[in-house]
Specification:
alpha+beta, BirA Bifunctional Protein, domain 2, Rossmann fold, 3 domains, seven-stranded mixed beta sheet, five-stranded mixed beta sheet, 14 helices, 23 strands, 26% strand, binds glycyl-adenosine-5'-phosphate
Length: 457
Amino acid sequence: MSEKLMDDIVSLAKRRGFIFPSSEIYGGLGSVYDYGPLGVALKNNIRRAWWTAIVQQRDDIVGLDSAILMNSKVWEASGHLKGFTDPLVDCKSCKRRFRADHLLEASAMTMPGMKEKPIEISHIRCPECGGELTDIRQFNLMFKTHMGPVEDESSVAYLRPETAQGIFVNFSNIVQTSRKKIPFGIAQAGKSFRNEITPGNFIFRTREFEQMEMEFFVKPGTDDEWFEYWKNFMMDWFTGLGVRREKLRFYEHPKEKLSHYSKRTVDLEYEFPWGWGELWGCANRTDFDLKQHAQHSGQDLSYRDETTGEKYVPYVIEPALGLDRALLTFLLDAYEVIEGGRTTTTESNKEQETVLRFHPSIAPVTVAILPLNKKEPLMKIAQEIRGVLNKRWAVAYDDTGSIGRRYRRQDEIGTPYCITVDFDSINDHAVTIRVRDTMKQERVAIDQVAGFIAGKV
Ligand code: GAP
């Protein structure tokens, strides 16, 4: 069932232009994807919803767009050069590579009674061919490249594996230029790269992905309280955009498994078709990063409270979300198949129907305009409405096929409102607005249409 659901989502994403395999005409590139016209619109809307809630609607958070390429010393200071590794094993027979921790975890779940007992990698065989596995070795996940024409040690550069470090190294710049007082945050969205050993599950784990991270700088001692605040914010943001509460849960990382920089980490998880998986991580990074960068750069990265004169290195609470993972979550959560269709009025409606129940503020198309025929005067009225609405929202225009088919095409891509321009529109200067989720139809005066949509989105 779960495999079928993922296959259906991947196929819908391809068929309707959300997501394509990268470089497909050359056979693709493993686990790398391109976002098509509807995919990029959905992605932009999710990013914008996050930015609006995190930056635009708040006085205490500012934005940043730092470069992907950074001085290699950044990664030395942050600990990524030494410690950003995953345990890797190879199969001696089929040469496939696996993450040892994933194999160990999966074995503990499948071998009765083994969960409590430690399992060693030597007990496990290759899940693909049953072959013997090598010993574990640590594999650094950073992509390495060279800057400039000479390829030597001094020109080595890395594609950033997280956006967070760009924020830490700009901490002083932002304190000086924005005049923000602690507590305050810096947010940025952008690409990150990790040479994952086992990418997979469509866009859940890829080697090139986008993160939306925010570092919230607080006075030490107030960090536990702020941690609770941001943890709850994560849940509220997703449920506020329509994701079902019962498909979300928090996972508290056990103390012994915390990252080297973390005092506490809680993940917001979603129940994906293959099981619960991390969606949004909230970490208390303490003063680790600022202290490391202060030490390695020789710069003073402490903060001075102007009212009390106190000087300290702030603690950091970090809610870090993957944009591609958020998009997959919205796609899965919105997806519904109705066997036999929702309407019973026509024969064609007895078919299976697919509806994407996106929240109106992230739907790639907000309104579709459907004139009953392609000729004047309906076309003229429809195009005038389009000209008004597309200044504020993403509008689709479809004048082909039966109205039932056109509704279903829009349902399948998650368009929340369809406007039908019919022959009565010529005389009553009104149109019919059909709501995706209820299929209710309402007659609305043409000059009230923009207000109607604005009230819903
Ligand atoms: N700065 C902290 C940090 O990067 P992380 O848990 O490694 O923490 C944060 O990443 C989020 O980025 C994850 O919760 C996930 O949503 C997303 N993410 C991480 N690795 C990813 C990958 N390979 N593909 C897609 N998304 C990924």
